[in-house]
Amino acid sequence: MSSVTPANREGARPLRRDAERNRGLILDAARQVFASHGLDAGFDEIARVAGVGVGTVYRRFPERRDLVEALFEQEIDVVVARAEEAAADPDPWRGLSEFLHWGVESQAADRGLAEVLAAAGRGHERVARERDRLRPAVLSLVQHAQRAGVLRPDVGELDLGLVVAMLGRVGGPERADLRHRLVTVVLDGLAVRRDAPTPLAAVPASEDDLACVFEPSRPRR
């Protein structure tokens, strides 16, 4: 006869629900904290935002890589899908331009995602495998635009990665206007030809915008 009584079984269910609820709270909190502070943010801050004890965070995610992988595997899938969609655009220049603008804003909004995409693994094996899918997707986008004669032939997929990584660090969440201006400047430089420079919005940059590039840990306003 089983030693598990109905009362015991009923008593176990809330614990399972609580564990799943805590996992969701931790993931939501980690997404916020990593987006603002990067992947080295402390578990104590994640626990505070989640409203749970720090011990609960460690029980659910004993290693930092477990939490990073749980968060970012799906987000990298989204980046890969956007690159593949851009490479399939019938208008190669539109696909390239929209991908650059979207990529810059995605990394500006999420410092953790930016670090995952730029890191060479950092011990996150599953994330690294997902990340390795991105390079061929961006290469396909580059080649699509080059075959159409709109992208200069000496540009590679890593050039685009560097552009997105650098411009994603400019300004805070509210400075999309400045990043849009800078992406426009870069796109003019990537184009095979322009009859005239693309008009730029009159968007003034500040010293704080510049400081974000050189001081990643500086709070972004």
Low-confidence stretches: 1-14
- Beta-strand content bin: under 5%
* The CATH top-level class label of the largest domain: Mainly Alpha
* Overall pLDDT confidence: 85
CATH architecture of the largest domain: Orthogonal Bundle
Q: What proportion of the residues is helical, as a percent range?
A: 55-70%
Q: Pairing-aware structural class of the strands and helices?
A: mainly alpha
The tally of beta strands, per DSSP, is 0
Over the alpha carbons, how many angstroms does the gyration radius reach?
Answer: 22 Å
- Quick one: overall form? globular
Biggest sheet, open or closed, and with what strands and sense?
none
What is the chain-wise order of helices and strands?
HHHHHHHHHHH
In CATH terms, the superfamily of the largest domain is: Tetracycline Repressor, domain 2
Instruction: Determine the number of helices (DSSP H or I, runs of at least 4 residues).
Output: 11
Instruction: Determine the N-to-C terminus distance.
Output: 64 Å
CATH fold call of the largest domain: Tetracycline Repressor, domain 2
Q: What is the total number of structural domains?
A: 2
What does this structure look like?
- This protein starts with 5 loop residues before the first helix and ends in a 7-residue tail after the last helix.
- It has 221 residues and is mostly helical.
- The protein is built from 11 helices and no strands.
- The model is unreliable at 1-14 (pLDDT under 50).
- The protein is globular, with a radius of gyration of 22 Å.
- Helix 4 (64-87) runs antiparallel to helix 5, helix 4 runs parallel beside helix 7 and helix 4 (64-87) packs parallel to helix 8 (134-147).
